[in-house]
Every structure is written in C-alpha cells, then in structure tokens.
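ok, trying the design again with the full structure, not the truncated one.
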C-alpha cells in the first residue's frame, strides 16, 4: 500500500523527486528526495526517533566519508531519513518541520546532485535498515505539466550542469511543476516527467493535477522521441542520447519544483555552456 505525503509537507521544500536517483531504493517511486532551501533538514514526518546509524559512503573527492540513517516511528509506518547528520537521538519526539540536523553530501551523491533529505517508509514489521524494500510514495499535490520545445537560454552554470530559463514556472510558490511529456495520441493530460534521462535506468511519468496514473501500459515521449513505456507511473528509458547544440551531454535532470528558478537542467560535466547562451536540446533514440 502506498504512503501519501500531503501538500502541507512537500510544500516546505522548493523541489522534490521520486525517481531522480540510480539507487534501488527509488525503484517504482518508493522513496522521495526533498530539497530544502537551507542546509538545515526540516523533518518531513512527526513521531519518535527510534534509532540513528552512521554508514560508510563510497569514496568521492567532493564528498564526506560517512552518511547517516535516521529512523522515526510515526505510528503506522517507520520513516527512513538519509543524508542528514543527526542532531536527534533515540527517544526524541519530532514534529513536521523540526530540525533533524545538517544535511551531508556523501559519496552516494552524483557530482551534479544538490543536498537533500531522502525519505522512505516501511511497515513496522519490515527491516528498516535494508536499502530497498520501502513502500511506494504518492504526493497529494497539484502537479503542473509544462510543455517544452527543447529550447532555452542558460541562466546558471556549475561544473557539471547548466540550467535553462525554460520552461518557466507558471505560478511560483503556488504549485509544483515539471517538464511535460509529449501529449498522448489517445488524449488526456500530459504526464509530468521525473528522473535522470537517460543517465539513470528509468524515471517516472506522474499524473498532472493530482490524478491517479492511467490504467494500462502506454508509450511516453519527449521532444518527439519515444522515451519508453510507462507501466503505471514508472518508465524504463530506452536506448537514448541527449544532445545540446549538437553536442552529446550526460542527460536531463527531471524533477518537480515550486520556485521561480525552475527550468530544464542539463547534466553536462564534459561540456561547457555559457550564461546567456541559447541552447537547443534534442533526444536521439
């Protein structure tokens, strides 16, 4: 049975993603990454802290050596929170929004991934320490699907990415929005895309407007190219390549956001784009 996060919880975070990760914990949207505005981690759940644990992370030159797990008993489920150096301990009671500690950037992060709170849920009788085995998560929020023609101007750059100014968020602070899949030939609202395309194995096609995903398998496309087939809301990407201004890049980072700075995020550690540069993105498959 899925666990539903209400909009009153997710709206505390400017951005979130269910699928933008290479790890099994996110398969089928069974975990959510929440991106706070500061490096302080507000708790996404209320309950009693039952344990904290420190684990060794993969060695990366940009990352800290250890990561952390915080287990919170919320009554019906055990919440698993990762990537936070705990300022809480077993027996503490926390409310939604209370600080759990400072986020850490560990070797579980790709170099283009921002600090975030990872959240998953287990049944009380399930092993809460295993990386996989969490329940699917539904977000009870109005998700807007933003059509995008693959073009934009570079608004921000980093060592591994370039963020475009398009598609623009239609109502910053009022709703979550993400890049829309191409309209289905069968009609209906386009899905909102989520995940690392194609640098992670798959992603999500989330129903806009808070609706349930359509029944049955269905093809999913972007910029006229078929990405794969959605089974429920989960899509396994086909053999794809993303090209920006004629140059192959690692891919697109697809997520949901409510902030005014939203735009397509190009993952391009081996390519350089300048602020103000006009970019055209294509998908080859």
């Amino acid at each position: 049975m899925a666990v539903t996060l209400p909009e009153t919880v997710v709206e505390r975070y400017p951005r979130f993603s269910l699928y933008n990760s290479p790890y099994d914990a996110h398969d089928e949207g069974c975990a959510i990454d929440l991106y706070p505005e500061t490096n302080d981690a507000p708790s996404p759940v209320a309950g009693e802290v039952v344990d904290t644990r420190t684990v060794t992370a993969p060695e990366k030159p940009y990352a800290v050596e250890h990561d952390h797990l915080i287990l919170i008993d919320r009554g019906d489920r055990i919440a698993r929170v990762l990537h936070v150096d705990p300022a809480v301990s077993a027996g503490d009671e926390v409310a939604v929004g209370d600080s759990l500690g400072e986020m850490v950037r560990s070797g579980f992060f790709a170099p283009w991934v921002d600090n975030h709170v990872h959240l998953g849920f287990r049944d009380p009788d399930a092993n809460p320490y295993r990386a996989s085995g969490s329940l699917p998560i539904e977000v009870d929020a109005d998700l807007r699907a933003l059509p995008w023609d693959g073009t934009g101007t570079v608004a921000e750059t980093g060592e591994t990415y370039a963020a475009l100014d398009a598609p623009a968020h239609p109502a910053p602070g009022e709703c979550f929005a993400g890049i829309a899949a191409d309209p289905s030939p069968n009609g209906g609202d386009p899905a909102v895309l989520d995940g690392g395309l194609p640098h992670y194995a798959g992603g999500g096609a989330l129903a806009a407007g808070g609706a349930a995903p359509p029944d049955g398998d269905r093809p999913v496309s972007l910029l006229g190219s078929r990405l794969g087939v959605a089974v429920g809301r989960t899509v396994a990407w086909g053999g794809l390549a993303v090209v920006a201004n004629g140059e192959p890049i690692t891919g697109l980072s697809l997520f949901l956001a409510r902030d005014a700075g939203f735009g397509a995020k190009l993952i391009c550690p081996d390519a350089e784009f300048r602020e103000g540069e006009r970019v055209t993105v294509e998908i080859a498959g």
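Keeping the full-length input from now on. The first strand starts at residue 3 and ends at 6.
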